[in-house]
Design a protein that fits this description.
Order of helices and strands: EEEEHHHHHHHHEEEHHHHEEEHEEH
Structural class: alpha+beta
Number of strands: 12
Radius of gyration: 19 Å
CATH class: Alpha Beta
Helix content: 25-40%
Strand content: 15-25%
Oligomer: single chain
Number of helices: 14
Largest sheet: 8 strands, antiparallel
């Protein structure tokens, strides 16, 4: 099945580029509410599932032991810009467990924020693992290990106790068998698993409703959802679409972006989960598809399905937009 064109990019009123993709909207019991394209295809969810990967941190009692509030929990679920507050919060998390940035195994990364990167270089400093967009997640892994009395060294390996716990949580929430047959390695060095798109959508519905989850897991999920709503800036940062969505709709929408054109979300009031995969890996397309789904199911006036294309002088010269019939495709 060829995935349809879901997003157009215009310049001067003329369509310049097109993006194909697939969308699944599913309830917590697995009922498919909307399907566009091949929703049975397996995709690497990448960073979209960071909140699920943070479940052991909360369930184990580590988050309480180290005094983590919404800011720390949101950072554990984030793909942050590497701005000063992001970095300081990751350092604070590590220090609470008696650890430091030297224990991070996510690899160095220049901050995604241009201003943060410029400030770093002006200060004569080099980017390190603490600036990696995944440092909050990794800090959570290290804190979980320390709480459990596990040596955190090698915590990125599939056979390490930390990753065994994380993988088990992901398998449980998405209802997918995860092992070496569908395993890859993410950009931050931890395992990532290829999961059917519809299973990801169902997993997000279960995450916000608690349906089908053990009570302890459901309670941990509620806490992480609340943290992302309370601290949306921590999830992404300045200028990030995911932060904009959570700032506008964090009480009703739980969302997380990922690499290679992935985006997952859940709509709390209607109990639905959503997963998007853009065939060409375009994040700009995934953003507006999520926006269209939000407008179709929970917030018709959200104005999230069109994003401006700007010149280097800041002039609006076109737009990235959902195709005109995408909302009808979702609700027919």
């Amino acid at each position: 099945m060829a995935d349809p064109v879901l997003v157009e990019v215009t310049r001067g009123g003329i369509v310049e580029s097109r993006h194909r993709g697939a969308v699944a909207v599913v309830d917590a019991s697995g009922g498919v509410v909307a399907a566009i394209g091949d929703i049975d295809q397996v995709v690497f969810p990448r960073s979209t599932v960071k909140a699920i990967q943070a479940l052991p941190l909360v369930e184990s009692g580590a988050a309480d032991r180290y005094g983590f509030g919404p800011a720390e929990l949101a950072l554990a679920c984030s793909s942050h810009n590497g701005e000063p507050r992001h970095v300081a919060t990751a350092q604070k998390m590590l220090a609470a467990a008696g650890r430091s940035a030297a224990d991070l195994e996510c690899g160095p990364q220049v901050p995604s924020s241009e201003s943060a990167a410029a400030a770093l270089f002006r200060a004569g400093e080099r980017p390190g693992p603490i600036h990696n967009n995944c440092s909050g997640k990794h800090a959570g892994f290290i804190c979980f290990a320390c709480h459990e009395g596990i040596d955190p060294r090698g915590y990125v390996r599939p056979d390490h106790p930390v990753q065994r716990s994380v993988t088990a949580a992901l398998a449980d929430v998405t209802g997918t068998a995860l092992d070496e047959r569908n395993r890859g390695i993410d950009g931050c060095s931890i395992p990532t698993y290829a999961i059917p798109l519809k299973n990801l959508a169902r997993g997000f519905a279960r995450f916000v409703t608690g349906e089908g989850l053990a009570e302890k897991r459901a309670a941990a999920a509620r806490r992480l959802v609340a943290a992302s709503a309370a601290e949306p800036w921590m999830i992404g940062g300045t200028g990030r679409f995911v932060t904009e969505v959570l700032e506008k709709l964090g009480g009703t929408v739980f969302a997380k972006d990922g690499a290679e054109g992935t985006f997952c979300a859940a709509f709390r009031e209607v109990g639905l989960g959503m997963a998007v995969k853009c065939d060409d890996g375009a994040g700009r397309a995934a953003d507006v598809i999520l926006g269209a789904v939000i407008e179709a199911f929970v917030a018709p006036g959200a104005e999230l399905s069109r994003r401006p294309v700007k010149s280097r002088r800041g002039e609006v010269v076109g737009e990235v937009r959902a195709v005109h019939n995408l909302k009808e495709m979702l609700t027919k």
